[in-house]
Design goal:
Strand order of the largest sheet: 1-3-2
Largest sheet: 3 strands, antiparallel
Helix content: 55-70%
Strand content: 5-15%
Shape: elongated
Length: about 110
């Protein structure tokens, strides 16, 4: 699972790929449609799509001359589950900090 998370987070590290995933959340898109908002070539967009495919975030199929992509959300659920453990960790730490700051303020008054 750790290796899959590494690949998922590497794919999500690029803002263009995140924008492509956001676009795909609205339904299937062609590579040309994914490329358009970024003023990039088909080849450039295809490279980003390949990175998303490797991470298991996108599935590509041919429809005539077009290559259509669709979102596959399972790796995102796995990443969210991993991040949730850190959300709990930081919430606990921030609660402790809030109590310390409250006590400090009360002593100062």
């Amino acid at each position: 699972m750790v290796e899959r998370l590494d690949i998922t987070f590497a794919a999500l590290a690029d803002p263009t790929r995140r924008a492509m995933l956001a676009s795909l959340s609205g339904g299937e898109r062609s590579i040309g449609e994914l490329a358009a908002p970024h003023a990039m070539s088909f080849a450039g967009a295809s490279k980003h799509v390949r990175a998303l495919e490797r991470a298991g975030l996108v599935e590509r199929r041919k429809a005539g001359r077009q290559q259509l992509c669709r979102l596959k959300a399972d790796p995102l659920r796995e990443a969210e589950a991993w991040l949730r453990q850190w959300e709990k960790f930081w919430n606990e730490r921030l609660d402790v900090l809030a109590e310390l700051l409250k006590a400090e303020k009360e002593r100062a008054e």
